[in-house]
Each structure stands twice: as structure tokens, then as C-alpha cells.
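Standup notes, structure subgroup. Blocker cleared on the zinc ion input:
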Amino acid sequence: MGLRPCLCTILPPHVLRELLRRGTPRQQDVAWRTLTVSERFRGERATLTPLAAVAATPAGRKHRTVYDAGRAWHLPGRLVRSEGDPAVGDPATDEAYDGAGAAYDFYLEVLGRNSLDGRGLRLDATVHYGRDYANAFWNGRQMVYGDGDGELFRRFTLALDVIGHELTHGVVQFEADLEYEGQSGALNESFADVFGSLIKQRALGQTAEEADWLVGAGLFTEAVRGRALRSLKEPGTAYDDPVLGRDPQPAHVRDYVETEEDNGGVHINSGIPNKAFYEVAARLGGFAWERAGRIWYQALTERLSRRATFQEAADATLAAAVELYGLRSPEAQAVREGWAAVGIRARRGLGRGRRRRRPRAAPVTPPAGRARGPARTPGPARAGSVTPPAGRTSPTTTAAGSADRAKL
Ligand SMILES: [Zn+2]
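Run returned:
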């Protein structure tokens, strides 16, 4: 389990790059600020709430706190709502609070998991982060939400699946800790989309047939031609817009996108395992979190290793289905067919799909004021392929390179 600072953003860099290329000067400015936020964030990491304080919450309790950054770029901001406080009337604050609650309840009531770390980790969120910041992210210890620019993007707390997505990055971090690169990175993204979606479906009481299977519906304004950021049911169809470009997600391994951008296309190739999950859930019917979700969760927590491939994910979910429901169960058959639909043949009993025996760390409270685990120093900035809007000076160019490297 790693507690490395990362920036797992909901809006992938390719969308912002399109905006940088084709947007109006103001939109380019928004895209630029949003893309380079990791550089700002890095400088502020030292001011974050020490994880010791975060982790000290007694187990077994839901504990949410929401901070308001007041449109500044500092974290965490001013405390505006704590667990049990009544609604404050600010939509972003109350949505962040309620969304974290829905995610917490989902993990506890459906999967028996007490918060992201399984031990009641406090759920911290900051709203109104930055000026016109068009993104939301999990930074390794808390949620951060921007207000959007109002022109193309609305506030990011609007979408419950976005909140669920980002918090699930926390769960992944504490479990398989999938490396945020290539196929394991796409799996990391996919688990976040899958459970983000299931959290929304459960809150809405929707079956697999009733759900829209979209991620981030409602984030785009009417100015954008698109329904959402991604579609698990039909990857590649969520948006097609003159400014933001077209949803680039593949739905089959034959269309796997080889790219150096976006950590090897983690937000692009996640379409493949996303589609596999949808196919499994559609075959099983009913509430997708009850069986398909449980199978995926068991694979994530018990079987996957940090560098898992799509093939290993297929094998792991099949093994989980067999373990939970039996070899000849409809669930195991649905998993086989779901992966086959995206071009992957799930295999049983092959080497790396075997059960992971990872000793769980004993609950330890780190010394006061000290974060648990060393903070990883980010690598050197790489030359970015982003051209800053006219008038930008060179120092920010390195920021783009760093954004490239960061876990986006
Ligand atoms: Zn993500």
C-alpha cells in the first residue's frame, strides 16, 4: 500500500490539450491552468493536513470534512463542514459532503469496507479550488474539486460518479495499488470508473438496464456536444465536440491505443475493461453492484498485483467469480463472456492470476505530525508536448512536462 502523492484527475489531459489547441483565448487559459496544476500542487504538498491526523479517526465511523479553498490554489483551505454538521447552503460544499457519504455507505454496506483504507480513514475534500479550475482529483490523501469555467464545464461536485471515481482511487491505492502507467494504469482508471458508476447507480436505485453507464454526466454545459466524459456501455461515444474533440476510448483490445501521452493512455484504454465490466453486469442483470461489483472488488482486493495486465484482470475476475459463485455458475459464465466481448479470453488457474497473499499491515498510528510513509519526490520534468497560450513565459513549460509525468 503506498501513500504517494498523486494527481488522479477525472478529466484526462487529452481533453485539455484539445482545448488548448482549439479553444478561445479564455478557454486556452483555463486549459493551461488546469493542466499545470500539478506543479502548483507540488509546491503546496507540505501544507497538507498531515496524514497522521487524517488516519487517527476511530475505526467504524463515517467522518467527513469539507474545506473551502476560496478559489485560491492552496490546500486544504478553510474548514466549512464537518461530520454531522447541517447543510451549509453552498452547493459544492454540500455535494462534496453528501457524495463522500454515498461513497462511504456504498463501501461499508455493500462491500463491508470501512472507508478507503478499511479502517475508517477520514474523508477530506476541498471545494472551490483555484480559479476556473476545470477538474477534480484525488491527490493521495484528499479530494479536490474545481468550480469549472462555467463556459464548458460546470462544478465538478455535480456528478456523484466523479466523487465516487476519485475516492475509489484511494481504495485502489490501499489495495492492488495498480501502477499508474500502461495497462495497470488503465485498470486503475477503470476500477475508479466502475465503482464510481456503481456508487451512482446505488444512490439512484438503478438496475444495470436502467443505468446510463456514463461517467461525469452533467459536467459539460450546453455549449458542449457530449453527454459525459466517458461511457462504460459504449466507449468512444460520450462526446464529439468541435472544441473538445472526440471521445477516444476503444471498446476492444484490437483498438488498444499505444501512446506516450496520459501515462500510456490510462484514461483512453480504460474503455476496454470498462466495457468488459458493463458486459458482465448487463448479462447478470439486476443491481450491478450486487454480483458484478462484488466480483470486481474481490479481484481488486485479493488477486491483482501492482503491474497487472488486462489479461491478468480477466483471469483474476474469473477466479473471483468461481470462488464466490462456483465454476459453472452464471456469474463465472458472464465474466468469461464479458471479457470475450472485448477480445480477451479469461483463463482459469494460470500462474499470475492466483490468489495474492499480501499480509495486511497492522493498524499503526504514526507519530504525531508525521505522515505515514515517505513522500515520493517527483522525477525531473520531461519536455511536454503542450504549447502554452501566447503570452505565457517559459517557466510554465516545465510545468506542462511535470503534468505529463504526474499521475493524471
Ligand atoms: Zn481517475
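Discussed briefly. The first strand starts at residue 8 and ends at 9.
Next: hand off to the docking folks.
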